[in-house]
Amino acid sequence: MGLKIGGRVEKIDGRTLSYNQFCERFLQKNEPVVLTGLMDDWRACRDWVNHNAQPNLHFFSTHFGNSTVQVVECSKKEFTDQARVEMSVSEFIGKWSKISAEETSHPSGSAENCQYLLYLKDWHFVKEYPDYVAYSTPLFFHDDWLNLYLDTYHMHRNPDTTYQEKNEINCSDYRFVYMGAKGTWTPFHADVFRSYSWSANVCGKKKWHFLSPSQCHLTFDRNMKNCVYDIFADVSEKQCPGFRKAVWLECTQEEKEIIFVPSGWHHQVHNEADTISINHNWFNAYNLPLVWKLLVKDYNEAKEYIEDIRDICDDFEGLCQRNLAANTGMNFSDFFIFVTRFSFANLVILHNNIKDFPGPLFRSCNHIRKLILNLTSIKRVALKMQSMNDWRENSRISLDFEEIAKGQNLHSYLGYSSALDKPCQTLHLQSGHCPSGSSSDGQYPTSKPDPNSSHQFPCDVIHLIRDFLKWD
Ligand SMILES: O=C(O)CCC(=O)C(=O)O
Questions:
Q1: Ligand 1 mean position to 72 CA, how many Å?
Q2: Residue in 114, 261, 104, 287 with CA at minimum distance from that of residue 185
């Protein structure tokens, strides 16, 4: 039985949409949308595509052939994902060209070829080729705390292992290139950290099937442990009792169209033509609470999983946190350090702007409102973190402003602050946007963040933000 399709994702010409409208209609409501008209001047659209609108494979082998990339074998399931192998871009292109040639000479042999469908995924192209500017991130997606942070810091450092160079690239950012022949696909999933994502088709065509977060439980088994892998496989009533009740949103994304994937929406994606896409994952003030919610859920699962060894474990909480980092990509401390650094950066920029906006003008400045929106969201999340007693009692993180401002991180911190400042100013200049909830909360910042204060717990961050903005 086929899927019940309840609607299609809206398509909008991105040139007619203001940033303000995008925030209100899509970021805040957490709804998907396809944006057109935003890729015309991308170098990728010229260099990576032939005149017949097919991927220019030759260009990739000659310019980027030596890169080592992750390639999935689409027909091979491994745990909850497809099996991955590593190869060079040249090798991947060689295999792709061979399969295409076979497909052209025996068009009906596709069933056999399907078994060997290879899909290049998660290529950290921007990190590897910073001087080759393939594209510019559309304004709608500039407010990206995740990649901004990762340009300076690591999300998680495993104290037991030293980072290999290879890992430095793999953990470095969430900006990717994907390349795959017609028939390649990505199994049903929700994105890492419950981030937003955007995905731009440089060429080709993708078919997306989405399920809203309110219906995602319908794709899990009775214990809410295992999720469906392929929504087009024969999903049995026994395996997943609610599956047939799910109502899906469908979308065909054409060449030069960008899809915005909201937080926590599960989706499955099929390339219906040979396709190259660029894809970022990110989060910001709007979906930060969802990131924390996922961490709590994954933490509870990690804890439950090893509950029976609690009594014989010297450091049960530490083990839970290590397992959380291994499974989810960060643990509570990583997240806490992230929000603390981010608060500092926002507060410093806010402080530096006070002199430019005296008196009532301060609150009417959109740039300032954006910073206050950021801090409001962080404060709300920090309040929730504060209630996680087990973690607080067992971990002490010493992260003080002085360390960040004066120590060895000085340059990266200042770089981080000014990088953060840029999107805020760009958004301010281009949109006249005032995100709801930000203006009434914010008062005048009165004092600079205290360089001598130490930030060990979420409550320290809450006090810092509260003191600075004089919230009650
Ligand atoms: O394009 C694909 O195959 C998968 C992309 C995806 O899942 C995403 O952007 O979240």
A1: 13
A2: 114
**pLDDT per position as a tens digit, 24-48:** 999 999 999 999 999 999 999 999 9
Q: What is the pLDDT of residues 389-442, one digit of tens each?
A: 767 666 666 666 666 655 555 566 667 677 777 776 766 545 433 333 333 333
242 & 219 share domain:
yes
- C-alpha 100 – ligand 1 centre gap (Å): 22
Residue spans of alpha helices (H) in 273-365: 288-305, 316-328, 332-354, 361-364
Cα(222)–Cα(270) distance, integer angstroms = 27
Nearest protein Cα to ligand 1, atom 1: 269
For residues 320 and 309, what is the distance between their CA atoms, to the nearest angstrom?
A: 11
Structural domain that includes position 346:
288-469
Q: Tell how far the Cα of 199 is from the centroid of ligand 1, in angstroms.
A: 7
pTM score > 0.85 for this model? yes
81 conformational bin, left if phi > 0, alpha if psi -120 to 50, beta if neither? beta
Q: Do residues 275 and 311 share a domain? A: no
pLDDT the model gives residue 268: 98
Whether pLDDT at 468 is above 50? yes
Q: Find, among 268, 260, 208, the residue nearest to 34 by Cα.
A: 260
In a shared domain, residues 419 and 396 = yes
Task: Say how many Å lie between the CA of residue 36 and the centre of ligand 1.
Answer: 18
Strands (E), 344-452: 399-400
Last residue of a domain, which of 258, 282, 306? 282
Instruction: State which ligand 1 atom lies nearest to the alpha carbon of 206.
Output: 1
Given this model, what pLDDT does residue 449 score?
57
| Rounded-to-integer distance, Cα 56 and Cα 106, Å | 22
Q: Which atom of ligand 1 is nearest to the CA of 275?
A: 1
